[in-house]
Specification:
Layout (H helix, E strand, L loop, with lengths): L1 H19 L1 E12 L3 E9 L13 E5 L13 E5 L10 H4 L5 E5 L8 H4 L7 E5 L5 E2 L12 E5 L5 E2 L12 E3 L9 E2 L3 H14 L3 H16 L5 H16 L7 H13 L11 H21 L6 H46 L3 H80 L1
Parallel strand pairs: 1-3, 2-4, 4-5, 5-6, 6-8, 7-9, 8-10
Antiparallel strand pairs: 1-2, 10-11
Helix pairs in contact: 1-10, 5-6, 8-9, 9-10
């Protein structure tokens, strides 16, 4: 019975481990890497990390037996061959701080983004070979100015950004032989690389992708000026166009769309919205502040929220000024009407009296118009502050919650490992 329970517990641990974390098992050895060195210490991945989602791409541990006195900081190259890595491993820099070479070969890699490579400013040699990458996007190597060797042997490529290689002054080797639009290799020649880049610019840019990217950049600019209704309509039109394109599942667009939706999710008041709606908005923000303070005191940056609340309060107080002017003008109007009625009842119809009244009424009308215009501008400023506050708060909370989740996972794994150890120890004693 105890043995059966032990087997079940081991299976449970294995399943939970695959859901909660991704471990890389390394075989550490030495290898020649072009433009890096003849005896480069590397991690050659031995296990299949089974990275099929972006969540599972987060590396939580690295194991393996080092050579002699070597440690993780001595690892210069990271090699993956014929494993399951659909998305670029995240967090490698935590374990390997000094990587200069990254090679991913026949591992089903679907996409690569500049944030994937951003943690590796020392990168000299980068190869992706025989995966299923379709797009080399704008700015992919923005943070990798030391690159000398780039290999993209990818037969599925349908778009390479025209400017993606322009800023790499040290680049002298390009291996693109299996890439359909160029099919060339250039080795150890900066001059030939310059000619190679011109071929890439001419042959490898997909017009449909470039058009979508241009539309999206315009959408980014429009999001800063358009009303929610107009922006929402443009965003919907872009989503429809994206769905009909070859790039409907490409995360470079999908993730930015989700960011937009998050930042634009607050409903914008109409210009004619009265001050009662604004008054009710400010207490709701105070209520959110209280809830955040009670439920997420360790999860978000309250100083940002408090600062935003203070700004909104100041804006709201400023709105009271034109409102007071309106009330004053209405009182004057009422007084003028009463005076007119009194004079009429005493003296009958009087052109002079009506002329005075018309003049006063015109002045009041002008005051009302100016006040409403000021209110509209102030309402728009308040709404903008509300949108920014909400987005920043959500991002902060999300990041902190993920950190807490990881700590809980680590704690649960530690406890389960301790329990399993005790059970195994007890079984050894009995036998």
């Amino acid at each position: 019975m105890i043995k059966n329970f032990c087997v079940f517990l081991c299976i449970l641990m294995t399943c939970c481990g695959s859901l909660w974390s991704t471990t890389i098992e390394c075989k550490f050895n030495f290898i020649y890497v072009h433009r890096v060195g003849s005896s480069v210490y590397r991690c050659l991945v031995q296990n299949d990390p089974n990275i099929t989602t972006k969540e599972s791409a987060q590396i939580t541990s690295v194991v393996g037996i080092h050579n002699n006195s070597k440690v993780n900081d001595d690892v210069i190259a990271f090699d993956v061959e014929e494993k399951t890595i659909n998305f670029f491993p995240q967090g490698l820099e935590v374990f390997f701080k000094n990587l200069k070479a990254i090679h991913i070969y026949r591992s089903g890699l679907k996409e690569i983004h500049k944030n994937d490579l951003k943690p590796f400013p020392k990168l000299v040699n980068f190869y992706v070979t025989r995966n299923v990458i379709e797009v080399i996007e704008e700015g992919l190597f923005d943070y990798n100015l030391e690159l000398e060797v780039i290999g993209i042997h990818e037969s599925k490529i349908i778009h390479i950004d025209p400017n993606v290689l322009d800023h790499l002054d040290k680049l002298n080797t390009c291996a693109f032989y299996e890439t359909p639009c160029v099919k060339q290799n250039v080795q150890d020649s900066k001059e030939r690389v310059k000619k190679f880049i011109q071929i890439v610019k001419k042959n490898c840019a997909n017009i449909e992708f470039l058009n979508l990217n241009t539309q999206f950049k315009k959408l980014e600019n429009d999001s800063k000026t358009l009303s929610l209704d107009l922006f929402g309509a443009k965003l919907s039109n872009f989503e429809e166009a994206l769905k009909k394109s070859k790039f409907s599942n490409h995360s470079s667009f999908l993730e930015r769309i989700e960011t937009f939706k998050m930042s634009k999710s607050v409903q914008k008041p109409k210009s004619e919205t009265n001050l009662t709606l604004l008054t009710s908005s400010v207490p709701s923000i105070d209520e959110n502040e209280t809830n955040i303070s009670q439920n997420c005191s360790n999860c978000c940056q309250m100083d940002l929220v408090l600062k935003t609340i203070s700004n909104l309060t100041n804006l709201y107080n400023n709105l009271k000024i034109p409102q007071n002017e309106i009330e004053k003008s209405l009182k004057n109007l009422k007084g003028s009407i009463e005076k007119l009625e009194l004079l009429t009842s005493k003296n009958g119809s009087s052109d002079e009296t009506y002329s005075i009244f018309d003049e006063k009424f015109d002045n009041i009308e002008e005051t009302l118009s100016n006040s409403l215009s000021k209110n509209t501008r102030k309402l728009e400023e308040v709404q903008k502050e509300i949108e920014i506050s909400r987005y920043r708060t959500l991002v902060s909370i999300d990041a902190k919650i993920k950190l807490i989740e990881q700590r809980v996972i680590d704690k649960v794994e530690k406890i389960m490992n301790e329990k399993l150890g005790k059970i195994m120890k007890a079984l050894n004693i009995e036998s």
